[in-house]
Specification:
Number of domains: 1
Order of helices and strands: EHEHEHEHHHEEH
Distance between the termini: 15 Å
Structural class: alpha/beta
Number of helices: 7
Largest sheet: 6 strands, parallel
Number of strands: 6
């Protein structure tokens, strides 16, 4: 029997791995082995690449240097995952990347925050240096099975259409609020179907 592909779940800003409790309950061990790294973000002060480096260390510690993995990144976690995939060599071992309500093209809610003190939030501004760098070379993403889940009514990733990767499939989530993305049954049903897809 082939070994199952590990799943890594990456939380967002002002979250912890606890944000995935309902998702894990509904998955009911059908996607083990799992890794849920706790990436402390200093209230948005830590740059995305620093968090991506910590993600790399957690993945290597759990699964070694070569084991293929699947990634699901929620909110800022999706941008951390994308930074790891495109800028730190993660594409070479990633099979599937699922982005959920993540500011892959930025979010207007990040614009008012001062980048001098909140570098991680500044990375999420539309047109930020990080996003320009990521969008300049999409080839690492094109080699993966990518899917973006987004909601047009999301006021955290705003406007909602910014919450999609520039490549891959796109799926609307029937969830009105950002803080409900990981608990609303109608959204979790779609996410689990994606996670269990062969």
């Amino acid at each position: 029997m082939a070994e199952a592909t590990p799943l890594v779940l990456i939380h967002g800003l002002w979250d912890t791995p606890k944000v995935f409790r309902t998702l894990l309950r509904d998955l009911n061990h059908r996607r083990d082995p799992l890794l849920l790294p706790h990436l402390t973000h200093g209230l948005g002060s830590k740059p995305m690449l620093d968090l991506a480096q910590r993600l790399d260390e957690a993945i290597r510690s759990a699964f070694g240097a070569d084991q293929p993995i699947d990634l699901l990144g929620f909110s800022m976690g999706g941008l951390i995952a994308r930074s790891w995939i495109q800028l730190l060599g993660g594409a070479s071992r990633t099979r599937r990347f699922i982005s959920v309500a993540s500011p892959q093209q930025g979010t207007l809610t990040a614009v008012p925050w001062p980048g001098l003190w909140l570098a991680g939030i500044a990375d999420m501004k539309p047109g930020s240096a990080l996003l320009r760098r990521l969008n300049a070379d999409l080839e690492p993403l094109r080699r993966l099975d990518c899917c973006s889940f987004y909601s047009p009514s999301d006021l955290t990733v705003f406007p909602g259409w910014l919450g999609v990767l520039p490549v891959g499939r796109r799926q609307l989530l029937p969830v009105w609020r950002h803080d409900r993305m990981m608990v609303a049954p109608q959204g979790l049903k779609l996410l689990i179907a994606e996670l269990l897809r062969p």
